[in-house]
Amino acid sequence: MNIEVVKSKIHKVRVTEANLQYVGSITIDEDLMMASNIIEHEKVQVVNINNGERFETYVIKGEAGSGVICLNGPAARKVAVDDIVIIISYASMDFEEAKSFKPSFIFPDTKTNSII
Questions:
Q1: Beta strands in 15-106 (DSSP E)
Q2: Can you state the percent helix, strand and coil of the chain, rounding each to 5?
Q3: Could you tell me the sign of the dihedral formed by the alpha carbons of 102, 108, 110, 113, in that order?
Q4: Each residue's pLDDT tens digit, 24-34
Q5: Is 22 in the active site?
Q6: Does residue 25 carry a catalytic annotation?
Q7: Quick check: helix, strand or coil at residue 44?
Q8: pTM of this prediction?
Q9: Measured between alpha carbons, how far is 88 from 6 in angstroms, rounded to an integer?
Q10: Considering 25, 36, 89, 90, which one is annotated as catalytic?
Q11: Handedness of CA 57, 62, 66, 70 (dihedral sign)
Q12: Cβ proximity of 80 and 50 under 8 Å
């Protein structure tokens, strides 16, 4: 039996941009992606602490060290610049494997979106 478990989480990061005129996705600083074990084009859930919105999209790699967290396309309507969001990815794995799996959680500085 396979179950879905949290694979990666960027806990509380600040939205720096919202670009409605883009195809769709979330742009994430490459440093944050690497630290949280999230890859480009991976599906993620975004949870907006400010307004309670929860939605899914996919990741686009942003410039390393830029602190960028940009919601693109229709997802831009779900956030405002300076909102605090949590970004979560999940993995499907065997039940027994999941018991010992250790997800990657990071807790960036919400002012700069840099890794503490």
A1: 17-19, 25-29, 43-48, 54-62, 69-72, 84-94, 104-106
A2: 15, 50, 35
A3: negative
A4: 899 999 999 99
A5: no
A6: yes
A7: strand
A8: 0.96
A9: 7
A10: 25
A11: negative
A12: yes
- Domains, the chain, ordered by start: 2-94 (2.40.40.20)
pLDDT in tens, 43-56: 999 999 999 999 99
Report residue 105 as tokens: 């959680």
Q: How far apart are CA 31 and CA 10, in angstroms?
A: 11
Residue-level pLDDT, tens digit, the chain, 116 residues: 999 999 999 999 999 999 999 988 999 999 999 999 999 999 999 999 999 999 999 999 999 999 999 999 999 999 999 999 999 999 999 999 999 999 999 999 999 999 98
Helix, strand or coil for residue 75? helix
Residues in the chain: 116
What CA–CA distance (Å, rounded) separates 20 from 94? 38
Catalytic residue among 8, 22, 36, 58: 58
